[in-house]
């Protein structure tokens, strides 16, 4: 059950990362074609900003994928839902809100 939820999260993070990577690639191509100059062209500055945003979003999506993978590993280990710091069970509500949480609320 938890596994299904995690796999679903993994898939959505993965498709998000793929979309962002594609957008980023398109942006690179567009900025190369227009030969935009980040320093002097206002258009170039916008592209630079957009690129920074997409890069940050992509990094976040990839990090989420890694977190979910880690959670899946803990499901296999039988350590899922147990705080990595104090060894106590992580509250149900917390796991519902953050299925890949590694620490209980007290330790987070
Ligand atoms: Zn704890």
Notes on the structure:
The mean pLDDT is 90. The two termini are 24 Å apart. With 108 residues, the protein is mainly α. It has a domain of 62 residues. The chain contains three helices and no strands.
Cofactors, ions, other ligands: zinc ion
Shape: elongated
Number of strands: 0
Low-pLDDT runs: none
InterPro entries: DnaK_N, Znf_DskA_TraR, Znf_DskA_TraR_CS
Domain Zinc finger DksA/TraR C4-type: 78-108
Protein name: TraR/DksA family transcriptional regulator
Zinc finger (dksA C4-type): 83-107
Fold blueprint:
Elements: H1 2-33, H2 42-77, H3 92-97
Helix pairs in contact: 1-2
Q: Briefly, what is this?
A:
This protein has helices spanning 2-33, 42-77, 92-97. With 108 residues, it is mainly α.
């Amino acid at each position: 059950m938890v596994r299904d939820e995690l796999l679903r999260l993994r898939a959505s993070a993965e498709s998000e990362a793929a979309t962002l990577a594609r957008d980023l690639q398109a942006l690179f191509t567009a900025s190369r074609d227009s030969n935009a100059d980040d320093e002097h062209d206002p258009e170039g500055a916008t592209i630079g900003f957009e690129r920074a945003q997409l890069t940050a979003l992509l990094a976040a999506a990839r990090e989420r994928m890694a977190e979910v993978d880690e959670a899946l590993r803990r499901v296999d280990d039988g350590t899922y839902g147990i705080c990595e710091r104090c060894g106590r069970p992580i509250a149900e509500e917390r796991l519902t809100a953050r299925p890949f949480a590694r620490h209980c609320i007290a330790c987070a």
